[in-house]
Design brief:
By secondary structure, the chain is mainly alpha-helical. The chain contains 3 helices and 2 strands.
Length: 130
């Protein structure tokens, strides 16, 4: 294969991706608006061949699952905090001083995280109701 042939092949392989990127760049606002409208609507449907999907419902279900997982993580963190406090109160005498400090540090960090999460959740609820 000659150098000219290699250059011609490179032109073909490079030209299509570059053209696609340029087209996407110029149309990105329109595509973004279309996708936002499709995903925000409750009955936004997408059909590709034999596959049909109600994107609005899928997005809403996904948000619900994420919310449920967040609540589950908070519940698990609160349970762990109770366990750590119990261990500190009732079994602290059996720990080495560095282990007690580590335990207190974990209790403090977990308490801070839970408190910041609760205040963030309150702020989000205030914004949503406004």
């Amino acid at each position: 294969m000659s150098t000219d042939q290699i250059i011609e092949l490179l032109k073909v392989f490079v030209s299509w991706p570059v053209a696609a990127i340029v087209i996407i760049f110029f149309l990105k606002d329109y595509v973004q608006k279309f996708l936002d409208r499709l995903l925000d609507s409750k009955n936004g449907e997408l059909e590709i061949g034999p596959v049909k999907a109600k994107l609005g419902e899928l997005v809403e279900n996904g948000r619900n699952v994420i919310d449920d997982l967040g609540e589950l993580q908070i519940l698990l963190a609160e349970t762990r905090l109770i366990e750590l406090k119990f261990a500190e109160r009732n079994m602290g005498h059996g720990f080495k001083p560095e282990e007690i400090e580590k335990l207190k540090s974990q209790i403090s960090k977990l308490t801070e995280l839970l408190n910041s999460n609760k205040s963030s959740k309150k702020d989000a609820l205030k914004r949503a109701s406004s």
